[in-house]
Write a structure and sequence with these properties.
Length: about 600
């Protein structure tokens, strides 16, 4: 049995491994089952997403269709808007025809006024010409009243009224052509003014950008000037480096100064452009005021023309009811037009209102001419005239509505023009302030430049002075060394002379001692001659001693003279070391110190003793 145990253990282990493999395969099967379920769920989610995508595509298609329908509706609205605009243009053209009548009456009145003014201004001085403008309105009103009275008298005869109507129609056609030409010219001028304004706006934007660039350059220049000032302060400690930095700084400062001058010139040009824009805005404002005044005068002339037309209508009508109705309508229309004239502020609105009124007036004049011709030929025109009056009233009401719309548009345009003028004035003021600020900045930069140049000049002067002082100190040290060497040589010479003198004195003393001994020996040998011999020997010994002393004194004097001459030759002219050199001399000069009391390296700064 024992030999069978190992196979059983191996079988047991194999069975365990198989069981483990079975469990793993079962787990793997469960995992695969879960993965299959997850795949099915994912497929279901993808199908759901696909369905949602299809629904979204359908919704997008519907939205595209809705967008196309909306675009078509917008196109239809645009076409309707274009048609409406064309209708407004046609209405404006029809109104231009009505303006011609008022322009003709105004031209006639102006001609009469000019004739009267020319007759009256011949005897007046130049100061009274301004008063003529104030009296011109009254005179024009009187002339228009006289013209209305004459026109009422002219209406008394139907034939003459018909002829006058035909002549007026011809004049209106001529004035219509002139008015069309003037309207075209005004449109062209308005387009040119708009183009000029766009160019000015673009130029102002470019100038503002360039101004910002110049301000940035000015800031950079100020920073460079500050850094250069710091470099100048640091140059005090570094002489050689400061000279190169100062040269570069001067070049940069010159370039910055040129840039500042160029910026100043550009600022002046921009200020000139701003002033030109301001003058142009003032001129446009004055032109708008003149147009408003002309509109008021045209409205007054139109009111007069309306009154004359009302009088013509009252003359042509036979029935008193029609005459009263037309008179009331004319008065109401005149009152409404007077109220409209107070609101009207610009030329475009005036043209629109005048065109609308002129269209109605032209139609009314045509109907009245037809009625006048029919009244001359037949006497059954009153019923047709009543119907024409009703139609004219309806047309006048329509024209009045159009005029009110034109007035509202004119008021809006006037407000826009006033805002534009205010914005231009504000921009001009801002431009002037910016120019003043740039000029002040340029002045400050120039002052800083001058201060930097002065600081650099002072630094260069200090550097030169320090270099001169250093050079003078070197020369002084060299001369001190030369003086020290000369003094040492002089001491050596004096010492050698002193030693030679001492040797000569010792030799003389020895010679005198030997002479004395010889004399004493001679005296001992010759005692009999002691008296005379002693006197002679003493005198000879004294003579020898005197000669030796004289020789020593002469040698000392020669040595001193030699030393003094060498010192004077080395030192040159005597000058105090403590005092600075004169203005004309480039360096210091040293004085020879014979006492050697101010040697090089001495801790005390004492004055030399003397020459």
């Amino acid at each position: 049995m024992p030999p069978n145990r190992p196979p059983r253990a191996a079988a047991t282990q194999r069975a365990e491994r198989e069981a483990e493999l079975a469990r793993q395969s079962a787990e793997r099967g469960e995992i695969e089952t879960q993965a299959a379920l997850a795949a099915q769920e994912r497929l279901a989610a993808e199908e759901t997403a696909l369905a949602l995508a299809r629904q979204a595509e359908q919704a997008a298609a519907k939205q595209v269709e809705a967008e196309s329908r909306r675009a078509e509706s917008e196109n239809r609205l645009a076409r309707k808007e274009e048609e409406r605009r064309q209708g407004e243009v046609q209405a404006a053209q029809r109104a231009a025809e009505a303006v011609r009548a008022a322009e003709a009456a105004l031209a006639a009145a102006r001609k009469r006024i000019e004739e009267e003014e020319q007759a009256t201004q011949a005897a007046r001085q130049r100061e009274e010409r301004d008063a003529e403008a104030a009296r011109a309105a009254g005179e024009r009103a009187a002339i228009e009243n006289e013209a209305a009275a004459r026109h009422a008298q002219r209406i008394a005869a139907a034939t003459s009224a018909a002829k006058a109507a035909e002549e007026r129609i011809k004049a209106e056609s001529i004035e219509e052509a002139a008015l069309h030409a003037r309207i075209d010219a005004e449109r062209i001028a308005l387009a040119e003014a708009q183009k000029l304004e766009a160019q000015v706006a673009a130029q102002l934007a470019a100038e503002q950008a360039r101004t910002l660039n110049e301000v940035a350059l000015a800031r950079l220049a100020a920073e460079r000037i500050a850094t250069e000032t710091e470099a100048a302060e640091g140059a005090k400690r570094l002489h050689l480096a400061e000279q190169e930095a100062a040269a570069a700084a001067r070049q940069r400062l010159v370039e910055d100064a040129n840039a500042m001058l160029a910026a100043k010139a550009r600022a002046e040009r921009e200020a000139e452009l701003a002033r030109e824009a301001a003058r142009r805005a003032e001129a446009e404002t004055k032109a708008a005021e003149q147009l408003v005044e002309q509109a008021r005068a045209d409205q007054a002339a139109e009111a007069a023309a309306t009154q004359t037309l009302a009088e013509e209508a009252r003359a042509t009508q036979a029935a008193q009811a029609r005459a009263d109705a037309e008179a009331e309508a004319a008065r109401a229309l005149a009152a409404r037009r007077e109220a409209e004239a107070r609101v009207l502020a610009q030329h475009s609105a005036r043209l629109a209102a005048e065109q609308a009124a002129a269209a109605a007036a032209t139609q009314r004049a045509e109907r009245e001419a037809e009625l006048a011709r029919q009244s001359a030929e037949h006497g059954e025109i009153e019923a047709q005239a009543a119907l024409a009056a009703q139609e004219r009233l309806a047309a006048e009401e329509t024209a009045l509505a159009l005029a009110r719309q034109a007035e509202q548009a004119a008021a809006k345009q006037v407000e826009a023009e006033s805002r534009r003028a205010e914005s231009e004035n504000h921009l001009a003021r801002k431009e002037e302030e910016r120019r003043q600020a740039e000029i002040q900045a340029a002045q400050r930069a120039a002052e800083a430049l001058r201060a930097a140049e002065l600081a650099q000049t002072a630094a260069r002067k200090r550097i030169e002075e320090e270099e001169q002082a250093t050079q003078a100190a070197r020369q002084r040290e060299e001369r001190d060394a030369e003086a020290a060497r000369a003094a040492g040589e002089r001491l050596e010479a004096e010492r050698s002379v002193r030693l030679a003198a001492e040797r000569r004195a010792a030799a003389d003393a020895q010679a005198s001692a030997a002479t004395a001994e010889r004399q004493r020996a001679l005296a001992a040998l010759e005692p009999e001659n002691s008296g005379a011999g002693s006197v002679g020997s003493e005198s000879e010994g004294q003579k020898l001693a005197t000669v030796g002393l004289r020789r020593l004194a002469v040698a000392c004097a020669l040595a001193m003279a030699l030393g003094m001459g060498a010192g004077h030759w080395l030192s040159g002219p005597s000058t105090s070391v403590a005092e600075p050199p004169p203005a004309g001399k480039p360096d210091f000069q040293l004085r020879l110190d014979y006492r050697l009391s101010n040697l090089p390296g001495s801790s005390k700064d004492r004055a030399p003793g003397g020459h």
